[in-house]
Structures are given as C-alpha cells and as structure tokens.
Write a structure and sequence with these properties.
Length: 158
C-alpha cells in the first residue's frame, strides 16, 4: 500500500495517508483563494484513504456552516478542506506534492483570468538573481524537511 506523509511548514503538524485511491483537484472558488492566500487551492481527497494525524493538532476555521478549514496554528500553513462527504488535504503540504497530479478544476466561475496564462510568463531560477546572492548565502531554513522526523525541532529533546 502506498504511504504518503506531509505536514505544515514549521513541522508542528504531521500526517500520513495510506492507500491508492486518491483524487486531486484545483479549486478556483473565492473561499479556497482566501483560505490558501493563493490564486487557487490544490487539494487531494483522502476520503478513500487511511488517514491519520501523526503529530500535533490542526486548528479549525469553520468557513461555512458545512465546511471547515484546517491549518497549523503555529505557522499558518493551510492543511485541509473538511466537508460532510469527506476531507481533502492541501496538495503542497504533502512531502511529495508531485505524487498527486490534479485531474479536474472546480469553481471555474471564480477563476482569475491570468491563471490561464501563468505558464507564458518569463521564468528565472532562484540562483539566477545576482542581487539575492548574499541573501541566499546566509539564509537558514526553519522549514520542516520533506520526511518524518523523530523529534522536531530536531534536538529539542536530546
Ligand atoms: Zn506549522
Ligand atoms: Zn473551493
């Protein structure tokens, strides 16, 4: 059985999903834009999967009478969309988001026009920005690595 792990940016919340059946989508609705602070929300349904929280407890915002949005209360990473018919997890929160290519777009009535043209924009690699060189040289990441850890922050429990 396939196992997929993930969590929030700071590592306070971690989860594990097991199973084969997964359905990934992008939602353009205004609620998802706002909840993710993004142009659209990438979501992986875990309805048919075995899902468990392995570290920490998400916070919940009830975005409507029927839907709850889970997120990390420490770092703010959006984590879930929870409806009466099941839960979906933010695709980017998985350790390997590339494992869930989306197969459908929802809420296209709210789609922001330029989203269809993002791939036409000029692109640059991070290291190509010469002015950011010293910034990149000095940066120390506090982001949780893309795999489970026995302790986090590492060394917190010697
Ligand atoms: Zn967090
Ligand atoms: Zn939505």
């Amino acid at each position: 059985m396939n196992t997929y792990t993930g969590g929030c940016q700071c590592g306070a919340i971690r989860f594990r999903a097991r199973g084969l059946s997964h359905h990934a989508s992008i939602c353009h609705c205004r609620m998802c834009q706002k909840a993710f602070g993004a142009y659209y929300a990438p979501l992986v349904s875990v309805r048919q999967m075995e899902f468990e929280w392995t570290r920490g407890e998400r916070k919940i915002f009830r975005s409507s009478n029927l839907v709850s949005r889970g997120f990390c209360g420490d770092c703010g990473t959006p984590l879930t969309y929870e409806a009466p018919d099941g839960m979906a997890v933010a695709a980017g929160a998985f350790d390997d988001p590339a494992a869930f290519p989306p197969s459908i777009q929802w809420g296209i009535e709210a789609k922001i026009d330029f989203v269809d043209h993002l791939h036409e924009l000029p692109g640059e690699r991070t290291e190509a920005d010469q002015e950011a060189e010293s910034f990149l040289h000095e940066i120390v990441s506090n982001q949780h690595p893309d795999h489970d850890t026995p302790d986090w922050p590492s060394g917190a429990h010697p």
